[in-house]
Protein backbone atom coordinates (compact mmCIF):
# COMPACT_ATOMS: atom_id res chain seq x y z
CA UNK A 1 0.00 0.00 0.00
CA UNK A 2 1.40 3.42 -0.92
CA UNK A 3 1.43 6.02 1.83
CA UNK A 4 1.30 9.75 1.13
CA UNK A 5 3.65 10.66 3.98
CA UNK A 6 6.86 9.07 5.17
CA UNK A 7 6.34 9.07 8.90
CA UNK A 8 8.12 5.93 10.04
CA UNK A 9 5.01 3.77 10.18
CA UNK A 10 5.40 1.99 6.87
CA UNK A 11 5.14 -1.74 7.39
CA UNK A 12 7.13 -4.41 5.66
CA UNK A 13 10.79 -3.57 5.76
CA UNK A 14 12.95 -4.58 2.83
CA UNK A 15 14.06 -8.19 3.24
CA UNK A 16 17.51 -7.63 1.87
CA UNK A 17 21.13 -7.46 2.70
CA UNK A 18 21.91 -3.76 2.61
CA UNK A 19 25.68 -3.76 2.48
CA UNK A 20 28.10 -1.38 0.92
CA UNK A 21 30.43 -3.34 -1.34
CA UNK A 22 33.82 -1.99 -2.32
CA UNK A 23 34.12 -2.64 -6.09
CA UNK A 24 35.84 -0.92 -8.96
CA UNK A 25 37.44 1.74 -6.80
CA UNK A 26 34.52 2.17 -4.42
CA UNK A 27 35.10 2.46 -0.72
CA UNK A 28 34.25 -0.04 1.97
CA UNK A 29 31.52 0.92 4.44
CA UNK A 30 32.84 3.05 7.27
CA UNK A 31 31.38 2.33 10.72
CA UNK A 32 32.37 2.80 14.31
CA UNK A 33 31.51 -0.81 15.19
CA UNK A 34 34.02 -3.67 15.15
CA UNK A 35 32.03 -5.61 12.58
CA UNK A 36 32.26 -2.80 10.07
CA UNK A 37 35.99 -2.23 9.83
CA UNK A 38 37.13 0.11 7.09
CA UNK A 39 38.77 -1.55 4.11
CA UNK A 40 41.12 0.34 1.86
CA UNK A 41 41.31 -1.39 -1.53
CA UNK A 42 43.09 0.11 -4.47
CA UNK A 43 40.98 2.19 -6.85
CA UNK A 44 41.44 1.36 -10.54
CA UNK A 45 40.84 4.11 -13.02
CA UNK A 46 37.46 4.21 -14.75
CA UNK A 47 37.69 3.62 -18.52
CA UNK A 48 38.19 6.76 -20.61
CA UNK A 49 34.99 8.29 -21.95
CA UNK A 50 36.12 7.52 -25.51
CA UNK A 51 35.90 3.78 -24.75
CA UNK A 52 32.26 4.00 -23.62
CA UNK A 53 29.70 4.10 -26.46
CA UNK A 54 27.48 7.16 -26.28
CA UNK A 55 23.84 6.35 -25.45
CA UNK A 56 21.04 7.26 -27.88
CA UNK A 57 19.07 8.91 -25.08
CA UNK A 58 20.54 10.44 -21.99
CA UNK A 59 20.58 7.75 -19.27
CA UNK A 60 20.06 10.32 -16.51
CA UNK A 61 16.97 12.14 -17.80
CA UNK A 62 15.76 10.32 -20.94
CA UNK A 63 16.46 13.35 -23.15
CA UNK A 64 18.28 13.74 -26.45
CA UNK A 65 20.89 16.38 -25.59
CA UNK A 66 24.30 16.28 -23.96
CA UNK A 67 24.83 12.60 -24.65
CA UNK A 68 28.63 12.89 -24.60
CA UNK A 69 28.97 15.57 -21.94
CA UNK A 70 31.08 14.79 -18.86
CA UNK A 71 29.45 14.09 -15.52
CA UNK A 72 29.74 16.69 -12.76
CA UNK A 73 28.54 16.08 -9.19
CA UNK A 74 28.21 19.06 -6.82
CA UNK A 75 27.40 19.04 -3.10
CA UNK A 76 24.81 21.73 -2.32
CA UNK A 77 23.62 23.04 1.04
CA UNK A 78 19.99 22.22 1.83
CA UNK A 79 19.06 24.32 4.85
CA UNK A 80 17.25 27.63 5.12
CA UNK A 81 20.61 29.35 5.78
CA UNK A 82 21.58 29.06 2.10
CA UNK A 83 18.28 29.24 0.24
CA UNK A 84 17.45 29.93 -2.52
CA UNK A 85 19.87 27.50 -4.18
CA UNK A 86 21.43 28.11 -7.57
CA UNK A 87 21.78 25.65 -10.44
CA UNK A 88 19.76 22.79 -8.92
CA UNK A 89 16.90 23.28 -11.38
CA UNK A 90 19.28 22.36 -14.25
CA UNK A 91 20.57 19.12 -12.69
CA UNK A 92 19.69 15.80 -14.32
CA UNK A 93 19.50 14.04 -10.93
CA UNK A 94 19.20 15.46 -7.43
CA UNK A 95 20.07 13.18 -4.50
CA UNK A 96 18.79 14.12 -1.03
CA UNK A 97 21.04 12.67 1.69
CA UNK A 98 20.87 12.81 5.48
CA UNK A 99 23.80 14.49 7.24
CA UNK A 100 24.62 15.33 10.85
CA UNK A 101 21.95 16.66 13.16
CA UNK A 102 19.13 15.07 11.19
CA UNK A 103 19.45 17.65 8.40
CA UNK A 104 19.87 16.97 4.68
CA UNK A 105 22.22 17.98 1.89
CA UNK A 106 21.87 17.69 -1.87
CA UNK A 107 24.17 16.14 -4.43
CA UNK A 108 23.30 17.53 -7.86
CA UNK A 109 24.39 15.52 -10.91
CA UNK A 110 24.91 17.49 -14.14
CA UNK A 111 25.61 16.24 -17.65
CA UNK A 112 22.97 17.12 -20.25
CA UNK A 113 23.40 20.86 -19.55
CA UNK A 114 25.21 23.16 -17.16
CA UNK A 115 23.89 26.18 -15.25
CA UNK A 116 25.87 29.41 -15.07
CA UNK A 117 26.18 29.12 -11.30
CA UNK A 118 25.70 26.36 -8.70
CA UNK A 119 25.57 26.58 -4.93
CA UNK A 120 25.81 27.15 -2.13
CA UNK A 121 28.58 24.54 -2.40
CA UNK A 122 29.24 22.62 0.82
CA UNK A 123 31.44 19.80 2.08
CA UNK A 124 31.42 16.14 1.07
CA UNK A 125 30.26 13.19 3.15
CA UNK A 126 31.21 9.50 3.17
CA UNK A 127 27.87 8.46 1.62
CA UNK A 128 28.75 10.47 -1.51
CA UNK A 129 31.68 8.17 -2.13
CA UNK A 130 29.40 5.13 -2.10
CA UNK A 131 26.91 6.70 -4.53
CA UNK A 132 29.33 8.16 -7.10
CA UNK A 133 31.18 5.04 -8.42
CA UNK A 134 28.15 4.13 -10.57
CA UNK A 135 28.96 7.19 -12.72
CA UNK A 136 32.42 5.94 -13.68
CA UNK A 137 34.92 8.63 -12.74
CA UNK A 138 32.96 11.89 -12.55
CA UNK A 139 34.16 15.33 -11.56
CA UNK A 140 33.24 15.97 -7.92
CA UNK A 141 32.88 19.53 -6.60
CA UNK A 142 32.63 20.29 -2.87
CA UNK A 143 33.94 22.84 -0.40
CA UNK A 144 35.94 20.64 1.94
CA UNK A 145 35.90 17.40 3.87
CA UNK A 146 36.55 16.15 7.38
CA UNK A 147 40.31 15.54 7.79
CA UNK A 148 39.82 11.82 8.46
CA UNK A 149 38.01 11.48 5.13
CA UNK A 150 40.71 12.98 2.92
CA UNK A 151 42.40 9.65 2.22
CA UNK A 152 39.09 8.20 1.07
CA UNK A 153 38.57 11.08 -1.33
CA UNK A 154 42.04 10.41 -2.78
CA UNK A 155 41.21 6.72 -3.32
CA UNK A 156 37.70 7.24 -4.67
CA UNK A 157 36.99 7.01 -8.43
CA UNK A 158 36.36 10.76 -8.76
CA UNK A 159 38.23 13.80 -10.02
CA UNK A 160 38.60 15.98 -6.93
CA UNK A 161 37.71 19.53 -8.00
CA UNK A 162 36.94 20.77 -4.53
CA UNK A 163 37.50 24.35 -3.44
CA UNK A 164 41.10 23.39 -2.64
CA UNK A 165 41.70 22.39 -6.28
CA UNK A 166 39.14 24.39 -8.26
CA UNK A 167 40.84 27.78 -8.18
CA UNK A 168 38.84 30.69 -9.56
CA UNK A 169 35.89 28.44 -10.40
CA UNK A 170 34.75 29.15 -6.82
CA UNK A 171 33.68 32.56 -5.53
CA UNK A 172 31.64 34.23 -2.81
CA UNK A 173 28.27 35.55 -3.89
CA UNK A 174 24.90 36.64 -2.55
CA UNK A 175 23.36 37.76 0.70
CA UNK A 176 24.30 34.91 3.04
CA UNK A 177 27.37 34.84 5.33
CA UNK A 178 30.24 32.35 5.11
CA UNK A 179 29.98 29.33 4.68
CA UNK A 180 26.59 29.68 2.98
CA UNK A 181 27.73 31.95 0.14
CA UNK A 182 30.20 29.79 -1.79
CA UNK A 183 29.23 29.28 -5.43
CA UNK A 184 30.97 27.83 -8.47
CA UNK A 185 30.98 28.10 -12.25
CA UNK A 186 30.34 24.56 -13.58
CA UNK A 187 32.12 25.16 -16.89
CA UNK A 188 35.22 26.33 -15.06
CA UNK A 189 34.98 23.37 -12.70
CA UNK A 190 35.04 20.91 -15.59
CA UNK A 191 38.14 22.58 -17.03
CA UNK A 192 39.91 21.15 -13.97
CA UNK A 193 38.74 17.62 -14.87
CA UNK A 194 39.10 17.21 -18.64
CA UNK A 195 39.02 13.41 -18.39
CA UNK A 196 35.78 13.15 -16.41
CA UNK A 197 33.71 10.28 -17.79
CA UNK A 198 30.55 10.79 -19.78
CA UNK A 199 27.07 9.48 -18.99
CA UNK A 200 26.43 5.75 -18.82
CA UNK A 201 23.64 3.43 -17.74
CA UNK A 202 22.83 3.86 -14.04
CA UNK A 203 19.70 1.71 -14.04
CA UNK A 204 17.02 4.27 -14.90
CA UNK A 205 14.47 3.44 -17.61
CA UNK A 206 12.25 6.00 -19.29
CA UNK A 207 8.88 5.46 -20.95
CA UNK A 208 5.16 5.05 -20.28
CA UNK A 209 3.93 4.61 -16.73
CA UNK A 210 2.97 1.12 -15.56
CA UNK A 211 -0.63 0.23 -14.86
CA UNK A 212 -2.04 1.14 -11.50
CA UNK A 213 -0.60 3.70 -9.16
CA UNK A 214 -2.44 5.75 -6.57
CA UNK A 215 -3.42 9.33 -7.48
CA UNK A 216 -1.96 11.71 -4.89
CA UNK A 217 -1.40 15.45 -4.62
CA UNK A 218 1.25 15.59 -1.90
CA UNK A 219 4.01 13.43 -0.42
CA UNK A 220 6.19 14.33 2.56
CA UNK A 221 9.60 12.82 3.28
CA UNK A 222 10.89 13.13 6.85
CA UNK A 223 14.25 13.13 8.60
CA UNK A 224 14.90 13.78 12.32
CA UNK A 225 15.25 17.57 11.93
CA UNK A 226 13.63 18.45 8.61
CA UNK A 227 11.01 17.59 6.01
CA UNK A 228 10.72 17.92 2.27
CA UNK A 229 7.37 17.93 0.49
CA UNK A 230 6.53 17.12 -3.13
CA UNK A 231 3.26 18.47 -4.56
CA UNK A 232 1.93 17.53 -7.98
CA UNK A 233 1.39 20.44 -10.38
CA UNK A 234 -0.77 19.40 -13.32
CA UNK A 235 -0.13 22.81 -14.88
CA UNK A 236 3.65 22.35 -14.84
CA UNK A 237 3.48 18.56 -15.19
CA UNK A 238 6.02 18.01 -12.41
CA UNK A 239 6.40 17.67 -8.66
CA UNK A 240 7.14 20.95 -6.85
CA UNK A 241 9.35 20.81 -3.77
CA UNK A 242 8.89 22.43 -0.39
CA UNK A 243 11.25 22.66 2.57
CA UNK A 244 9.78 22.48 6.07
CA UNK A 245 6.41 23.42 4.66
CA UNK A 246 7.56 26.41 2.57
CA UNK A 247 8.02 26.45 -1.23
CA UNK A 248 11.61 25.56 -2.20
CA UNK A 249 12.49 28.27 -4.69
CA UNK A 250 15.33 28.43 -7.21
CA UNK A 251 17.66 31.42 -7.17
CA UNK A 252 17.08 31.75 -10.92
CA UNK A 253 13.32 31.98 -10.36
CA UNK A 254 10.48 29.49 -10.04
CA UNK A 255 10.09 26.55 -7.68
CA UNK A 256 12.39 23.54 -7.62
CA UNK A 257 10.99 20.15 -8.53
CA UNK A 258 11.25 17.20 -10.89
CA UNK A 259 9.28 15.03 -13.25
CA UNK A 260 10.07 11.99 -11.11
CA UNK A 261 10.60 11.69 -7.37
CA UNK A 262 11.95 8.40 -6.00
CA UNK A 263 11.56 8.04 -2.24
CA UNK A 264 14.00 5.23 -1.56
CA UNK A 265 14.09 3.40 1.77
CA UNK A 266 17.68 2.63 2.76
CA UNK A 267 19.49 1.42 5.84
CA UNK A 268 21.12 4.37 7.61
CA UNK A 269 23.77 3.74 10.25
CA UNK A 270 26.47 5.61 12.15
CA UNK A 271 29.77 6.06 10.31
CA UNK A 272 33.14 6.45 12.00
CA UNK A 273 33.22 10.16 11.13
CA UNK A 274 32.13 13.16 13.21
CA UNK A 275 31.60 16.83 12.40
CA UNK A 276 33.30 19.69 14.26
CA UNK A 277 30.57 19.63 16.92
CA UNK A 278 31.11 15.94 17.60
CA UNK A 279 27.95 14.71 15.87
CA UNK A 280 28.31 11.42 14.04
CA UNK A 281 27.96 11.42 10.25
CA UNK A 282 25.26 9.06 8.95
CA UNK A 283 26.27 6.33 6.52
CA UNK A 284 23.62 5.71 3.86
CA UNK A 285 23.81 2.17 2.51
CA UNK A 286 22.81 2.50 -1.12
CA UNK A 287 23.87 -0.99 -2.23
CA UNK A 288 21.44 -3.86 -1.78
CA UNK A 289 17.69 -4.08 -2.24
CA UNK A 290 14.68 -2.47 -0.67
CA UNK A 291 11.40 -0.67 -1.09
CA UNK A 292 10.69 2.64 -2.75
CA UNK A 293 7.81 4.86 -3.78
CA UNK A 294 8.04 6.36 -7.25
CA UNK A 295 6.08 9.54 -7.90
CA UNK A 296 5.24 10.35 -11.52
CA UNK A 297 2.32 11.85 -13.44
CA UNK A 298 0.39 12.70 -10.27
CA UNK A 299 0.51 9.11 -8.99
CA UNK A 300 2.49 7.08 -6.48
CA UNK A 301 3.74 3.63 -7.43
CA UNK A 302 5.03 0.92 -5.10
CA UNK A 303 8.50 -0.16 -6.24
CA UNK A 304 11.46 -2.34 -5.42
CA UNK A 305 15.01 -1.03 -5.78
CA UNK A 306 18.14 -3.07 -6.40
CA UNK A 307 21.80 -2.10 -6.66
CA UNK A 308 24.18 -5.06 -6.82
CA UNK A 309 27.45 -3.19 -6.28
CA UNK A 310 28.87 0.30 -6.08
CA UNK A 311 30.06 0.35 -9.69
CA UNK A 312 26.51 -0.46 -10.85
CA UNK A 313 23.40 1.67 -10.93
CA UNK A 314 20.06 1.22 -9.17
CA UNK A 315 17.10 -0.35 -10.93
CA UNK A 316 13.49 0.25 -9.94
CA UNK A 317 10.81 -2.33 -10.66
CA UNK A 318 7.12 -2.87 -10.03
CA UNK A 319 6.10 -5.49 -7.42
CA UNK A 320 5.77 -8.04 -10.24
CA UNK A 321 9.33 -7.39 -11.43
CA UNK A 322 8.78 -5.16 -14.47
CA UNK A 323 10.91 -2.02 -15.01
CA UNK A 324 9.26 1.04 -13.48
CA UNK A 325 9.79 3.70 -16.14
CA UNK A 326 10.31 7.37 -15.42
CA UNK A 327 9.01 10.18 -17.64
CA UNK A 328 11.80 12.12 -19.38
CA UNK A 329 13.02 14.94 -17.18
CA UNK A 330 14.73 15.70 -13.89
CA UNK A 331 14.81 12.90 -11.30
CA UNK A 332 14.96 13.42 -7.53
CA UNK A 333 16.24 10.46 -5.48
CA UNK A 334 15.20 11.04 -1.87
CA UNK A 335 17.05 8.69 0.49
CA UNK A 336 15.14 8.03 3.74
CA UNK A 337 15.86 5.53 6.46
CA UNK A 338 13.81 2.37 6.36
CA UNK A 339 11.53 2.45 9.38
CA UNK A 340 11.39 5.63 11.42
CA UNK A 341 13.76 8.58 10.84
CA UNK A 342 17.23 7.70 12.15
CA UNK A 343 19.53 9.83 14.30
CA UNK A 344 23.10 8.49 14.66
TrEMBL record:
Boundaries of every DUF3048 domain copy: 68-196, 226-333
Protein name as annotated: DUF3048 domain-containing protein
Keyword Signal: yes
Region annotation Disordered: where it falls in the sequence: 33-68
Composition bias type Low complexity, residue spans: 39-57
Signal peptide range in chain numbering: 1-28
Annotated keywords: Signal
InterPro entries: DUF3048_C (IPR035328), DUF3048_N (IPR021416), YerB-like_sf (IPR023158)
Native organism: Actinomadura barringtoniae
Keyword Signal among record annotations: yes
Amino acid sequence: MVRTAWNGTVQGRAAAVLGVVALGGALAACSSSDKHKTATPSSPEAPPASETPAPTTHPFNGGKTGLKNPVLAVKVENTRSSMPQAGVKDADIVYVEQVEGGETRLMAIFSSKLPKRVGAVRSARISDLHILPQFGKPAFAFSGVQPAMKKYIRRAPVFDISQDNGGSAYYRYGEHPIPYNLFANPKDLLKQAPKATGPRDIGFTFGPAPDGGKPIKNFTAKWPATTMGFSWSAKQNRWLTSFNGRPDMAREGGQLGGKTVVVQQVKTTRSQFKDVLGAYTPLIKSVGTGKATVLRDGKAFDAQWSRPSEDKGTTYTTPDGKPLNFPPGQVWVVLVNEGKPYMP
